[in-house]
Write a structure and sequence with these properties.
Elements (H helix, E strand, L loop, with lengths): L1 H45 L5 H28 L2 E4 L5 H14 L5 E5 L6 E4 L7 E5 H6 L2 H16 L2 H24 L1 H12 L3 H27 L4 H14 L2 H14 L23 H4 L7 H12 L1
Parallel strand pairs: 2-4
Antiparallel strand pairs: 1-2, 3-4
Helix pairs in contact: 1-2, 1-6, 1-7, 1-8, 1-9, 2-6, 3-5, 5-9, 5-10, 6-8, 7-8, 9-10, 9-12, 10-12
């Protein structure tokens, strides 16, 4: 029975890696289309025949994509206050990560520590060769060896499954859409362009584009956020499963999640832009922000892990 379960988990893991790569391209296409659409409507509403808004939107979308692809990991580490360590700085954590990487056949990532009493961790990096893993001081101090190992195995599984590339692209593109929407709603030029079209006899068309533009500017960030929230929670369950397959001890991660649930402590330096990268929602206890969590309920994750170990 255990052998069959491990085989199914392994097959699901490889299928998810392929699916994540395909979804990354598809999702980026959707986001870029939304951004260019905002730019087009913005140009029409202003009466800009050169479609400057479209070109501006294209530059923003391409720039955001490049930043997210090449610097998304650095942004996530910086905003969380993570500090790099070496084996000499913390041999215990370093050896745990090193041993898990040897077992999984992946390169040893850069290791960071976040000075925060909450129990949490995250991984980042667009591919395993350029990955980083960050863990809080709270996790190091409060978790037993097997529990911390389960947490680190979960994060390394995200790296191996190429989840990080997908999630980082999503976060940055959501931010780009929000910026463009704010520019659209706040720009005085928008209203100036509308008056210009009125004088040229295109008042009705300009009014239509104004209405469409305002609706898009309001709805686009919401749609983008919903897309982000709709990223399958299966990736968290899969990382739990593949991490447990790596450690051969699902109970380790289950106990770590129980401790997190019991203390219900938010990270002091949490950001909504990077919240989806963490092991659990970093806004624990902050009810309004936790409503928009991309993570499955902790109790469901614990239940599934214990089912694996049964």
């Amino acid at each position: 029975m255990i052998r069959v379960t491990c085989y199914v988990i392994r097959e699901n893991m490889y299928s998810q890696i392929t699916a994540n790569k395909r979804k990354s391209v598809f999702l980026m296409t959707i986001f870029i289309a939304i951004i260019i659409g905002l730019g087009y409507v913005y140009s029409k509403a202003m009466g800009d025949t050169t479609y400057g808004g479209v070109w501006f939107a294209i530059i923003i979308s391409l720039g955001s994509t490049m930043i997210s692809y090449f610097a998304g990991d650095k942004i996530a580490l910086y905003t969380s206050g993570a500090k790099a360590i070496t084996k000499e700085d913390n041999a215990y954590v370093y050896r745990l990560v090193e041993n898990l990487c040897i077992a999984s056949g992946t390169p040893v990532p850069k290791i960071y520590i976040i000075n925060d009493p909450a129990i949490n961790a995250f991984a980042t990096g667009r591919k395993p060769e350029l990955a980083s893993v960050a863990v809080t001081t709270g996790a190091i101090e409060k978790l037993e060896n097997e529990e911390l190992e389960g947490v680190l195995a979960h994060e390394l599984s995200h790296v191996k499954n190429y989840d990080i590339r997908f999630m980082t692209l999503v976060a940055v593109m959501v931010g780009a859409i929000s910026i463009l929407a704010n520019i659209f709603l706040r720009s005085r030029f928008f209203f100036g362009g509308r008056r210009s079209n009125d004088r040229e006899g295109g008042g009705q068309l300009a009014a239509i584009f104004m209405i469409v533009g305002v609706v898009l500017a309001i709805l686009s960030p919401i749609v983008a956020e919903l897309i982000k929230l709709a990223i399958s929670r299966r990736r968290e369950y899969l990382a739990d499963a593949s991490g447990s397959l790596l450690t051969r001890y699902p109970e380790g991660l289950a106990k770590a999640l129980e401790k997190i649930q019991a203390e219900n402590m938010p990270l002091r330096q949490a950001s909504t832009a990077t919240a989806h990268l963490f092991l659990v929602n970093p806004f624990q206890g902050k009810s309004l922000k936790s409503l928009f969590s991309t993570h499955p309920p902790i109790e469901e994750r614990i239940k599934k892990l214990r089912t694996m170990g049964a």
